[in-house]
Amino acid sequence: MLNQGTSLQAWAVARSIFKGCVALPWWQSDKFPSIEPHNCELKFLSFGPMQDVVFSEENILNLHKGIFALPEFRFWIKHPFSAFQKIKTLQKFGSYLKSREENLEYLIVLLATCLEATAVYMNHHAQCIKLLGSEKGTVCFFLKDINAPLITLTKNGNAYWETTFETPEIEPRVKLSFDSINTGILSCLGRINPLVGSALGNYQVDGYLPLMDKVGYCSRLTAKDLPLII
Amino acid sequence: MRSHNTSEILFKRASRVIPGGTYGHIAPASGLPRHFAHFCSTGHGAFFHDVDGNEWIDFMCAYGAVLHGYQNPRIEAAVEKQRKLGSIFNHPNEVVVELAEKLTQVVDFASWSVFAKNGSDLTTWAIRVAREQTKRPLVVKALGAYHGVDAWCDPGLGGRIDSDRSDVVEFEWNNLNQLEDIFKQKKNDIAAVILTPYHHAAFAPSEMPTEDFWSQVRGLCTENGSLLILDDVRAGWRLHAGGSHRFFNFTPDISVFSKALGNGYAISACVGIEAVKSAASEVFLTGSCWNDAVAMQAALSSLTMCVEGNVPQSVMTKGQFFSERLEQLAKGFNYSLKMTGPPSMPYPWFEGDENLFLIQKFCQLASKQGLYFHPHHNWFISDAHDQESLKKSLELAGRAFEELDS
User: Fold this and answer.
1) What are phi and psi of A183, to 5 degrees?
2) Is the ipTM of this complex over 0.90?
């Protein structure tokens, strides 16, 4: 979880990389070392609990911008093998995002990347916290004609907002369904006006719309802070 | 199959030159964008046509602005007569005085009236009058209540800063203990309590006031020297011909009207008690087109018809007829539908449908039958709804229930 003193932006980028990697078609949790972000020293974040691949917050933001960024030498030299595996994964993830493929797998990776950053903002950004108030529940994202959700954004009780790939057991509060893979990708990239998109059938929103409005606003606020450059 | 092709083409054009294509409460995202048209072309009585030529039996009445039906002949005749003379001048037209006099006759507590174009113009002005009168900063409102588009109360998410609402305190509708606590804590800081006659929030069933709600609110305001402002913008002239406070048997200090007042012509009015007339004259109020003689003639006719024909009672009776039968119809298909709020402006609520999927599906299917049922907003009955149109609507709603059930 985000520690006091940690940059919200860096944490959101690290979390979004983590969730994006987990969504990669070839990702298998039993084969790959965990890259779930952990707080490390002040202004440093570790991908995974081992503290082998550690980036300064500045370099995390450079990763996001696509600028060359090295993990801290003093950490990875202690665990070179696992560090190498993780760095390869991060590289593959970066390349995959840039590939701009138009298929379901790519859409899921993109959704995971964008929505996890949004979830971080929903949990920690002052304006998002204020506008969300006591909202909770589940928001499911679908592709037209596919029954299972592509990804779910959820908050139960007093817990935090998070993305999951599991089909929720309870009825979601709101469902958003993209009419095509391309629409989903363009939405993630902020290239579809939400009002226009729903009017023209690029996507359909059903259920408790005020929650979707708030999630949408938080996602645009996140994207303004952390535009996806691919 | 009802086509929406022209509507979509027009929306695409609109989206190139208007942010979001259309905006506010009529923005597609707040309704059922794939099932309702985006643009209308004509309206007569209880019906309107969209730009694709589809006919709709209307249960939104331009979101309440049309009380006597679209293009009511008597109102249109008055409007046409004034239009030939002109609408906006350097000074007000005589009709402004006639309308102010009419309002002070119709609304029992009113000793003065002012006019603007929209509800928001005057809800915001009214709280400034209360601040001028009391020299206090705070305004108390109900949580989730809509009072307009200004920063202190709008339901949107963008463009806000913390100070926008730093002088607004909220309590849950009908929770008198909360309101009492607010008065205890902020005793000498509350300029006004602003409330709608009943709680008509979007995306939720309407809540009527509890039996002692209004007497308690009135009492708290009087005891604490705060003004009671009634936002009668939406409900005005659909509950009582003398203003909605009469329906609930209390007296506010200020009431704000709009919507039904002009039967579709843009006008709002604020009326108040003698004691705040001086404060009202201290708070600046103007707009280039606010002395619109055409809209004022429409309001004068509309108001006269309201009183002469007791139109609020008429729409209440029609709403009762329709709501009861729609509930029975739903029950026949094993759905528990409650038409909440006053029958003249009922909000449909399926029991157990907190996430709104069922009402959205029902309204979508109803739209295929040409029924304009909004899934997230209270509906409106107009005096142009007659037995024939209401019975036809029930028949079409039955078909929607059949499809919902299949």
Assistant:
1) -60, -45
2) yes
Same domain, A112 and A204: yes
Residues 6+ apart with CB under 8 A from B229: B123, B126, B127, B130, B192, B193, B194, B195, B252, B253, B254, B255, B256
- B157/A213 CB distance under 8 A: yes
pLDDT of A189: 94
Is A230 domain-assigned? no
Dump pLDDT digits (tens) for A191-213: 999 889 999 999 999 999 999 99
CATH classification at residue B172? 3.40.640.10
The answer to whether residue B67 sits within a structural domain is: no
DSSP string, A104-140: HHHHHHHHHHHHHHHHHHHHH-HHHHHHHTT--EEEE
- Are A221 and A109 found together in one domain? yes
How many CB pairs lie under 8 A apart between chains A and B? 63
Q: Is residue B330 part of a domain?
A: yes
Our CA-based measurement puts residue A194 at a distance from the nearest CA of chain B, in whole angstroms, of 8
Structural domain of A178: 104-225
Beta bridge partners of A155: A137
Q: Look at chain A and report how many structural domains it folds into.
A: 2
What tokens were used for A18? 């983590």
Domain end marker among B274, B308, B342: B308
B39 to chain A, any CB pair closer than 8 A? The answer is no
Domain end among B308, B343, B371 = B308
Q: Measured between CB atoms, does A193 come within 8 Å of chain B?
A: yes
CB contact under 8 A, A195 and B355: no
Q: Which amino acid is at A122?
A: M
B279-B103-B347-B248 Cα dihedral, nearest 10 degrees = 80
Partner B contacted by A174 (CB < 8 A): yes
**Contact present, A183 and A203 (Cβ < 8 Å):** yes
Which of A199, A210, A214 is opposite residue B38, by nearest beta carbon? A199
- Does B355 contact A204 at a Cβ distance shorter than 8 Å? no
Q: Is A213 on the interface with B (CB under 8 A)?
A: yes
pLDDT tens per residue, range B215-262: 999 999 999 999 999 999 999 999 999 999 999 999 999 999 999 999
Asked if residue B18 belongs to a domain, the reply is: yes
Which domain-ending residue is among A80, A99, A118? Answer: A99
In this complex, is the C-beta atom of A129 within 8 Å of any C-beta atom belonging to chain B? no
B269-318 confidence digits (pLDDT tens): 999 999 999 999 999 999 999 999 999 999 999 999 999 999 999 999 99
Tell me, yes or no, whether B200 and B282 share the same domain: yes
DSSP string, B111-159: SEEEEESSHHHHHHHHHHHHHHHH---EEEEETT----SSTTT----SS
CB neighbours (10 Å) of residue A60?
Answer: 25
Looking at the fold, whether B303 and B325 belong to one and the same domain comes out as no
Phi, psi of B61, rounded to the nearest 5 degrees: 50, 50
Count: domains in chain B:
2
Contacts 24+ apart (CB under 8 A), A24-30: A24/A92, A24/A93, A24/A96, A24/A105, A24/A109, A25/A105, A25/A109
Q: CA of B267, closest CA in chain A: separation in Å?
A: 28
Cα separation, B106 vs B241, whole angstroms: 8
